[in-house]
Fold this sequence. Notes:
This protein is α+β, with helices and mostly antiparallel strands and 389 residues long. It has three domains: 114 residues, Acyl-CoA dehydrogenase/oxidase, N-terminal domain (Butyryl-Coa Dehydrogenase, subunit A, domain 1), CATH 1.10.540.10; 110 residues, Butyryl-CoA Dehydrogenase, subunit A, domain 2, CATH 2.40.110; 145 residues, Butyryl-CoA Dehydrogenase, subunit A, domain 3 (Up-down Bundle), CATH 1.20.140.10. It is built from twelve helices and nine strands. The strands form three sheets. Strands 2-3-7-6 form a four-stranded antiparallel β-sheet, covered by helices on one side. Helix 4 runs antiparallel to helix 5 and helix 9 packs antiparallel against helix 10. Flavin-adenine dinucleotide binds next to strand 1, strand 3, helix 11 and helix 12.
Amino acid sequence: MMVDAVETAPGDAEAMILDSVDRFLERDVKPDVRRLEHDDIYPAEIVEKMKALGLFGAIIPAEYGGLGLSCRTYSRIIERISRVWMSLSGIINSHLIMASAVRRFGTPEQKREFLPRFATGELRGGLALTEPDCGTDLQAVRTTARREGEHYVINGTKTWISNGIEGQCFALLVKTDPQATPRHRGMSLFLAEKGPGFSVSRKLEKLGYKGIDSAELVFQDYRIPAARLIGGVEGRGLQHALGGLELGRINVAARGVGVAQAALDEALAYSQARHTFGKPICEHQAIQIKLADIATRVQASRLLVAEAAAAYDRGERCDMEAGMAKLFATEAAVFCSLESMRIHGGYGYSKEFNVERLYRDAPLLVIGEGTNELQRLIIARQLVERNPA
Ligand SMILES: Cc1cc2nc3c(=O)[nH]c(=O)nc-3n(C[C@H](O)[C@H](O)[C@H](O)COP(=O)(O)OP(=O)(O)OC[C@H]3O[C@@H](n4cnc5c(N)ncnc54)[C@H](O)[C@@H]3O)c2cc1C
């Protein structure tokens, strides 16, 4: 799938942006993470600061009020954020995938109406694809949109929707023709704003990834103007939804790098402070092997993400590169958080150390934006397609 080529921010501009993100994380996020996370509190004040930094418009073009950053710079921002608190990256990411669908496939009117409001963060939201009975097999969605004059009437349920409670607008995948074959020809993507007929039925409780709201959304005779059909033509919804997932996968991979790097940071600090048998544990070979394995995976993950982001910015097809980065970096996050926990001994199991949060956050990454099983299938199919016998 081709993506629009994006200008890479010149080195100086990128350095300035990354520097301001670092200062924000140090000053406004780090001191409060443990409290907000353990109590599962939506970080409303932090979100206001993210709005002021322009992060909700990170990859929205400047002509619509966004920062117009390249995927490379954006993924480096996401890595930094996830190194401090992964949940914050989810608040921006699914919002930006929705924005990216409008930027790439929306009508000129949809771009003019929505992108500036998305860029400021005044109108925030995400992606509503998954249903109680299907996630990987998106062509099985049951939510329907029936045309009635200049409106569609939508009925169905979406689940696991990030930003579902705090967000106001969602890219909503539905069937406009449930009988179509192949099934994707009957699928369409709408920009659905909350209103009569669109309700949140419940907040979902999770192992980790706390602070950000995950919710079930119910559509009951929800009337939406036909002008909210992305691109204005029925039958392209799956293509529009999956088009955004390359960016989403690079983002999730970048989160993996951030979590794995945080696990390394914690392990390095702890292993130098903790002594057993008369020396710091970092001087025991068993610990050194773990540190080396963690650090090597962090670095390899970072390079895979950079390569996938560069391909995305060049406008190249990069589902295989994004899939490889997502697969490797997210498995690295799971591996590194557990190894770091082992290095911490009993304290790794304590809520007073950060590593227990990393250990709870990391597994989500192997599931979201296409499970790692699915990534392997995508990679293998692309290998064969790009190397015909
Ligand atoms: C915290 C959280 C946040 C989320 N946020 C969002 C969101 O904002 N928006 C949204 O739409 N969704 C969201 N999701 C849903 C997520 O994208 C899905 O959970 C994911 O796509 C997997 O779908 P599923 O849970 O239905 O699993 P299933 O599709 O039922 O898969 C179950 C298992 O079978 C495997 N499997 C399925 N098909 C195949 C196959 N063909 N070959 C091999 N193995 C296969 C899977 O890899 C998995 O191991 C979120 C989920 C979580 C947990």
